[in-house]
Write a structure and sequence with these properties.
The chain contains 14 helices and 18 strands. By secondary structure, it is of the alpha/beta class. The strands form 4 sheets. Strands 4, 5, 6, 7, 12, 16, 17 and 18 form an 8-stranded mixed beta sheet that branches. Strands 3, 8, 9, 10 and 11 form a 5-stranded antiparallel beta sheet that branches. The radius of gyration is 21 Å and the shape is globular.
C-alpha cells in the first residue's frame, strides 16, 4: 500500500517504489483519507454538478422509463437499487414520477449503494419527506435477494480506477506512479509489460498504440449482468464515455469545478475517466442480455419525452421560470456538451 506522509504540512501519498496507476487512484479516492470517503463532492459549491442537480426533468425521464418497464415486464415485488445516489436528487425525481403508479414504490425494496458517510447523511435529510424505513443503505452490492431488480446510476462507472498502456517501438509499457523525494513531487513512470497474458490482450490495440482499461469497472458490471440474467431485471446507466477506440487517454481530475492534475490536491479532488461502453456492451452480450438502448444522453432524453415534459411544466406551473427551465434542459441535451458526451446504456433480461 502507499504510505501517507506529511510534506510541507500537506498529506501526500508517498512511496519509494513504483505503484500501478489504478492502485494510486484507488488509494486517493477510496481508502481512509480518500476523496469519496471523506469529502462531499456534488453540488454548485463543491467539485462538480450532475445532471439530476441541473434539472428535475432528467430524473423524471429516467423514472418514467424505469416505471414503464417495471409495470410491463415485472409488476411485482422487486429490488430498486441506485448506485452512487449522490445527494439523493435523482431518486427524489424518480419518486415524483412514480406518483402516477404508486405500486412501483410500494412494491420496491430500495437500496442505496453509497460509501460516503457525509452523502448518506445528506441523502437522509434530502429525502426526509419519504418513508426512510423503505430505504436501506449499503457500501457494496448485495445480491442475496432472488427478486427481479431495477438498477440505475448516473456518473457512477466513471469513478473506477483505470490502468493505462502505451506502445513504443513495438513494446508495451504500463503507466506507474512514483514519488520523487528530491523534488518532493509525484511523477509518472513507464514500466515494460512482461506478463504474457496481458501482452496477448493488448495485441488488438496495436494500431492505436494506447489502451485505457478499468478491470474493476468491468468486473462490477459483470456482477450486475450475472445477477440480472439469473433473476430478471433491467439496468440503466448514464455516464460520459465512448464506444470507438480512443486516440488519447481520458483520465482527468476536477477540483472546485476546474480541471486539475491528478497529483494536485491529492485526496481532495475527483479523479475519473471516460467509460468504455463497447466493453460493457460486450459483457452484457456475453451474459445473453438484451441491449435495450445505447444512445447519447441527448437522443435518449428526447426520445423518451423531455421536450414534451418541458411543455407540460410550462402549462401547469404559472410561477415557473421558463427561461431557466429551457437553459437547464438545453444544457442536458447540448450536442456540443453533455448531450453528446454522456451516453445511456440499458441492458435487461425482461
Amino acid at each position: 500500500m502507499l504510505e501517507i506522509k506529511k510534506i510541507n504540512n500537506k498529506k501526500i501519498y508517498s512511496n519509494n517504489k513504483n505503484y500501478r496507476l489504478d492502485k494510486f487512484i484507488q488509494q486517493t479516492l477510496y481508502k481512509k483519507n480518500g476523496y469519496y470517503i471523506k469529502e462531499k463532492p456534488i453540488g454548485k459549491r463543491f467539485d462538480f454538478i450532475t445532471s439530476p442537480e441541473i434539472s428535475q426533468t432528467f430524473g423524471e425521464i429516467i423514472g418514467a422509463y424505469l416505471i414503464y418497464h417495471w409495470k410491463e415486464k415485472i409488476n411485482s415485488k422487486f429490488n430498486l437499487i441506485e448506485l452512487g445516489p449522490g445527494n439523493g436528487t435523482l431518486f427524489k425525481d424518480i419518486a415524483r414520477s412514480a406518483q402516477i403508479v404508486p405500486s412501483f414504490l410500494e412494491k420496491a425494496n430500495i437500496t442505496f449503494v453509497e460509501i460516503n458517510k457525509q452523502l448518506r447523511e445528506f441523502q437522509k435529510k434530502n429525502l426526509n419527506s419519504f418513508k426512510l424505513s423503505k430505504i436501506k443503505w449499503s457500501k457494496s452490492l448485495n445480491f442475496k435477494s432472488n427478486l427481479p431488480s431495477v438498477i440505475y446510476s448516473n456518473e457512477f462507472f466513471d469513478c473506477f480506477p483505470v490502468r493505462q498502456f502505451v506502445m513504443d517501438n513495438d513494446i508495451w509499457f504500463e503507466k506507474y506512479v512514483n514519488f520523487n523525494n528530491k523534488e518532493k513531487k509525484h511523477i509518472f513512470v513507464n514500466k515494460k509489460v512482461i506478463n504474457k497474458k496481458l501482452i496477448d490482450c493488448l495485441k488488438i490495440y496495436k494500431k492505436q498504440k494506447i489502451y485505457e482499461v478499468s478491470f474493476s469497472r468491468n468486473k462490477y458490471f459483470e456482477e450486475i449482468c450475472t445477477y440480472i440474467k439469473k433473476n430478471r431485471g433491467i439496468c440503466i446507466l448514464v455516464d460520459y464515455g465512448y464506444y470507438k477506440n480512443i486516440k488519447n487517454f481520458t483520465l482527468q481530475s476536477v477540483f472546485n469545478h476546474k480541471i486539475s492534475h491528478i497529483f494536485e490536491n491529492i485526496g481532495k479532488q475527483d479523479i475519473s475517466s471516460h467509460v468504455n461502453f463497447s466493453e460493457l456492451i460486450k459483457i452484457a452480450k456475453e451474459k445473453k442480455l438484451s441491449i435495450n438502448e445505447y444512445n447519447t444522453q441527448r437522443n435518449f432524453l428526447i426520445k423518451y419525452g423531455i421536450l414534451e415534459r418541458i411543455k407540460k411544466l410550462n402549462l401547469n406551473d404559472s410561477h415557473l421560470n421558463k427561461d431557466l427551465l429551457k437553459s437547464e434542459v438545453n444544457r442536458l441535451i447540448d450536442i456540443n456538451g453533455m448531450g453528446k458526451l454522456f451516453k445511456c446504456l440499458v441492458v435487461s433480461n425482461l
